[in-house]
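Researcher: Structure prediction, please.
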Amino acid sequence: MSNLHTKLYKLVVIANTYGNKFHSLPKCLLSFVSLESFKIQFHRIVLPKNYQHVLSLVFAVNEVNENPNILSNITLGFQIYDSYSDAKMTYQNTLNLISHHRKTIPNYKCGVEKNLVAAIGGLDSETSSHMASILELYKILQITYSSFTPAVSEKDHISSLYQMAPSEEHQYTGIVQLLLYFHWKWVGIFVTADDKGETFVKILTRQLSQNGICIAVTETAVNYNGFDGLGMTEKYQNMAESLSKTKVNVFVVNADKNTKTGLQWLLLIGIMMSVSPINKVWVMTADWDFSSEPYHKDLDIQNFHGALSFAILSGEVKEFHHFLLNLNPHSEADGFIRLFWQQAFGCQFLDVETEEEFCTGEEKLESLPGAFFEMQMTSQSYSIYNAVYAVAHALHAITLFRFVKEHTFSLLQPFLRNILFNNSAGDTVFFNEKHELEGGFDIINWVTFPNKSFLRVKVGKMDPQAPLGSDFSIDEKIITWHQSFNQVVPLALCNDHCHPGYSRQRKEGEPFCCYDCTPCPEGKISNQTDMDDCFQCQEDRYPNQERNQCISKKENFLSYEAPLGISLALLALAFSATTALVFGIFIKHQNTPIVKANNQNLTYTLLISLLLCFLCSLLFIGRPQLLTCNLRQTAFGIIFSVAVSSVLAKTLTVVLAFMATKPGSKMRKWVGTRFSTSIILFCSFIQASICMLWLGTDHPFPDLDMHSLPEEVIVECNEGSANMFYSVLGYMGLLALVSFVVAFFARKLPDTFNEAKFITFSMLVFCSVWLSFVPSYLSTKGKYIVAVEIFSILASSAGILGCIFSPKCYIIVFKPELNSKEQLKKRNK
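Model: Predicted structure follows.
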């Protein structure tokens, strides 16, 4: 770089400052154009918030020029032009910056060489587009600090345009995420009456609808020309009254940096406040800012207390505050500051004839209301600050390659496109492939005070580069809401929430956000607010009474711990003990005639089978297991078949015995133990065969019935093959019926040796019990089915035991004198 001469490079800013000129800093070449100032009520004004943009440019250029690590042999200068938010003036001033000093003659150079590096400008996208249409022809870079809506496609065709703001698409996404976070589904939109407002409504409406959010009302601030600064029109009054009375609590405002539409918005707010208090939550886009007009510095900003807005991610530039404190209103280098000072403090300098107070220059900027002028760098000023450093770093990168030419566009653009640096606030600055700043948005909570001051509290952020799920974050605990909401998150719904236990039902003819709340039907629940449908609980759960949660079902089976289970178990043991007692009595008196009568072995077989019948009922109590499920019905069926077969054998033995007493009868050969044993074995074998076939094909197994009872899970033994189960019962019924018929016809035989009457009664009881069992079994559920079956087993067994053996036991125990052959013969005669 030995032959590299020190050169002066120029940054050009076209901004809506509404002033006339800005003198150069030391060692900086300035070109400025004297323009007619913006007039309101015949006074020229400097918009204070836009004036801060100029100051941030000056501050950034100063830092670059004083930094020996950047552009050590190059001094940056700048020129500032005013666009007046007017297309004609924007084109005029864009031509000025590429022309000779003070002469608008493009492509003509004379005098001092001016090396135009880049243009920083465009408070709105229209200004940037107008500038780019000329700068693109001359291959001059433009870094704009405004954003373009996704519908504006001009930016995509301008290769020289870089946007020092994140993509507008991210802001739309952030608005939707913010509304969804607070469950705001019924919102209003306030826009300006221009193409930007129309585009905003179109894009936002589509995204809100896709996310289940309805637009309750859309209000438009219609352009109005010809009002005085503080006047009110009937149209604006009606709109203000409408907004103040609407039940919509949340309004999304498409803020506009453009002075004309911004002025109308502020005017409307002022009218609103004079009509009635406005208790709303304003959700505003990143372009929002408080009043920029001098005569609005007395505007009551309490109406914006608790508002939320988006702002370009920005850091704190600590030295900027010190820079503002050192501003000198007597500096001739700044052509704007005297006018700004007079308007800010309501005074005049000595060289101006006025009846107002004179400006001393000792007035304190920090004493100004925050709505009028802020001592901290705003997000737009921060973008300008970063834009200066982006150009400086790109130019510095070129100098490292040891060559700089007069026309630097072809060299500067690739370096700017790939620029990556950390600014003094610690933020990383770089562009994406669409020439947009890669970044996101802060979420700001505006806290206002009666003295016109306010705080911008960062309560969250929207970072598109963050992983999914953490790209949006907000801390609602530190949010200050409007005092009318008593620090409770405001509701923004067409109607109240549908609480758990209810579901939403859409109202006919109303938007989809308006609905009725209907209770969940039986068997279903809803456990969240505003659910579209109720849902079934899992199989092992059931709805509670409020139908807002599922409760685990209890197991339903006949337990030994339950009163019913204990009662049946004690009853079975009592009958078993009674049977054992009867058996003991018969063993003790086995040599007596009444015991010997009607085949003693059959009596013992019957008593043992009845004892086992009583005991097998215990298999039905307790939690079903595989072994008990297989033994329940099969053991019961075989043992009962033995008992009934014994009764049938006893009945046939009585009949054959009397038939054998007749002279010449051939039945004597059938009388004996062999015949009765054969009957028992044959009848029991058939039942055993059925049970074995059942176990071998489709045996019982433990099962869970989730559906029969709404609040309980039935733990049961699934019988496997229902046909086999009913075959076992049917075969027992057939044996009992045969025994009953035979005993019925033998009931008139002599009583001394005849048990037919007692067998008849026992079989009548048996058949009655099991005939009533079938409908009871089919009509009950859960443990009561098991209880019915146990009761049937006990009742039928007790019927046989009582009807057959109670008369004999009575004689043996209480009438032993009758238990003799002599007494039997007497009774027989």
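Model: The two ends are 153 Å apart (CA to CA).
Researcher: Thanks, that helps.
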